[in-house]
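User: Some background: our group keeps a shared notebook of sequences we're curious about, and every so often someone picks one and asks for a predicted structure to add to the entry. Today it's my turn. The entry only has the sequence so far, pasted here. Could you supply the structure so I can complete it?
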Amino acid sequence: MKLELVPQLQIQQNLSLRLQQSAHILQLSVQELQTLLQDSLQNNPLLEPEPEPDPAPPVREGLTRSTHHDDGGLSSQDYLGSAPRSRDELILENVRLSRADERCRALCALLVNALDDNGYLREDFADLLPPDYERVPLAEWESALALVQSLSIPGTGARNLQEALRLQVQARSRLSGAVRQALLDLIATELPALAQGDWTGVQTRLSLPSPLFAQALRELQQLDPNPGLAYLQPARQAIVPDVYVYRDGSQWKVAPDPRSLPRVRIHHEYAELLEAQARSAKDRALHDTLTQARWLSDSLSMRRATVCRVARLIVQRQALFFELGQQALQPLRICDLAKELELHESTISRATMNKYMSTPFGTLSFRHFFSGELETGFGGSCSTALVKEQIRRLVAQECRHKPLSDVELHQALRDESVELSKRTVTKYRLQLGIPNARERLQRARLRALSGQDRGSRPN
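Assistant: Of course. Here's the predicted structure to add to the notebook entry:
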């Protein structure tokens, strides 16, 4: 085998460190940018924040739809304090305050640590003990588990769904004896049948009168299948908009938010002293610090300019949205903005990632205004956002006891001159979080039996 050197020509594109930093800063969210800026101001003595000369214009926020859904379940406010403590700490604190002996408290700690996020105990008692530990009688485990269940949100510490629901029923002292027994019978044997929608069969097998059966179903709807999630308080972080969109006469204008698009400046006196000195080996670190400060200042200025340019073009292209709302959203893609602004698509992608604008309709993501294009039967086009809104409207207006299938939704859209496939209708329905026709029918029947669907249209 002969070894030889063969010269080859190869073209390879590499981003400089300065461009890499600019691209990285462009795609950061407001929170990430503020963290980076705070660290840079602390570590680089040549940097200082530049105050904004003009405050952001007053913008009246529109009303946004609430994302809170009241499912009628048990509220954790009755059991949780305002202190940010973990589930295990809360339960074990209650155990310590009880009159249980030290051995029982130790078993309770093992049980609490074994609970999953939903509050269920999935492991066997024997698997919770450390290796080579003496065997604990089953009665002691059961006693410790009962203590944990009694000192937690009802349902926590259950070993299966039936037990979790049964514990919640037992904790509701306001229920009458007949309703309580009907609920326990439903939970014990009829959950699979209820999931299949066999209401008549369940009522017949349990020999329940219609009013009692309806009340039991209404109470069953209010039980929580995942009681442990009540302990997981989601971190609520306010969204800081990058820009404000406001009306100025007959035009919509964009103003940057100084918190999300900040400026920094360099101490000119320090910079002039460093420039006056000869670049020796001992001054190399100071000159590198000055270079990093200039790079950061330029990157922040570039981020501010790029985000504002993209935001202004989005507002310009989606002017009808700000006048008429979601139904007027026009087809818009990243490549369209890149072509008009003469920027690379990756730059537009970074400039719209985790960026938000405050509008009269609420605080919306930049990506909210991007929508694909679909052809219509009369030769024009419409946005995919408009089609999704039409699907949402059709489902909202359907007869509750005869929901529209995907085939029927597809035909209704075609009747409105929207050209798309049935598979696309299914995809858009899933993206909207709308269940299929069978699941919507089951929910309607459940609401009707439990007396919660009196205002729906008749069949």
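Suggested note for the entry: The chain has three domains: 17-59+239-369, 81-231, 373-449. Confidence is low (pLDDT under 50) at residues 55-83, 454-459.
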